[in-house]
Amino acid sequence: MNADPKSTSTPATGAPATGGRPFTRSIRQWNLRQLCSGGAFLLAALGSLIAGPTPSRSQDIPTAPSFVDDFTSFDRARWYVSDGWTNGNYQNCTWSKKQVKLSDGMLTLGFEKRKAKDRDFACGEIQTKQRFGYGTYEARMKTDAGSGINASFFSYIGPTDKQPWDEIDFEVLTKDTSKVQVNAYIAGKGNNEKLVDVAGGADKAFNDYAFVWEKDRLRWYVNGQLVNTITDPAKLPSHAQKIFFSLWGSDTMKGWLGPFSDPGRKLTLQVDRLAFTALGEPCQFPESLACGIK
After folding, report:
1. Contact at 8 Å (CB) between 208 and 140?
2. Are 273 and 139 in contact (CB under 8 A)?
3. For residue 278, what pLDDT is reported?
4. What share of the chain is helix, strand, coil (3-state, %, to 5)?
5. Which residues contact 226 (CB under 8 A, 6 or more apart)?
6. pTM exceeds 0.85, yes or no
7. DSSP secondary structure code for residue 49 in this structure
8. Which residues touch 38 (CB under 8 Å, ≥6 apart)?
9. Which of 20, 221, 255, 256 is deepest in the core (most CB within 10 A)?
């Protein structure tokens, strides 16, 4: 990824509450997508308030509605910006809303040397306020390069949301931008890692990363090509999750991320588009994997 931030970038801000991957908040939101009339509408609204989100015909777990976000504006109803804490001692940067910027239809997360609380570096993360279930998750993004850094697109839910730890990952370990690591956690257990090639490099151009999550299988795609499949029921997530983008570093996780050294410049993760298409619903833009996947 290039390190040429847009000159017109402005900070994007979220709601003033706690967040983060292991330290997330539970926000319950209701969406009345089908408008009725008279008493039928009132009954539907009352039912939603009592029961919360309900599965579609193709779902076994609740999900928020399908959406496409091209980041022409920052939807504060959708996104929460992590700010003012770290995910643990392993993380050498503090989440900062100043590292989340929007410009010219592009979301940019930053990592740079900037004192923030007890860390010498500041970094960026956003997460959805709603939870999503079975369907197609697609992100078009471009990373930077640098040892000791993780640029990721993933879904997650965990104990602070009073749920088991389930997670589905794309993680570019930017020590080697020729590959991306895919992974899944079920009840906090991982060991499903696989490194797959990113033709041309994750840092040289925008690439399309997608996973298709169904009850009986989980598939990962890079630029439309299937790169990994899990069908073992014991390795399939089963809880609705939030969607995250993050860019962070570590001084201690050398075996995984590589040795960290000050890059001497601001590193970035750029996101051009994100989409979620619920299972069984039509695709939402012409290039969507959901238009042709079976």
Report:
1. yes
2. yes
3. 98
4. 10, 40, 50
5. 219, 220
6. no
7. H
8. none
9. 20
Q: CA-CA distances (angstroms) from residue 196 to 13, 98, 172, 253, 283?
A: 34, 32, 10, 20, 26
The pLDDT of residue 194: 98
Token digits of residue 117: 């609380």
Give residue-wise pLDDT tens across range 41-57.
333 333 333 334 544 44
Residues marked as catalytic: 167, 171
Hunting for tokens 């089963």 — which residue is that? 238
H or E stretch covering 267: strand 267-278
Judged by DSSP in three states, 156 sits in strand
Q: List the chain residues with pLDDT less than 70.
A: 1-59
Give the pLDDT confidence of 202-218 residue by residue, as tens digits.
999 999 999 999 999 99
Query: d(Cα 196, Cα 178) in Å, to the nearest integer?
Result: 9
| Residue whose entry in the numeric block shows the structure tokens 């993760």 | 269
Give CA–CA dist 165/121, Å, rounded. Answer: 27
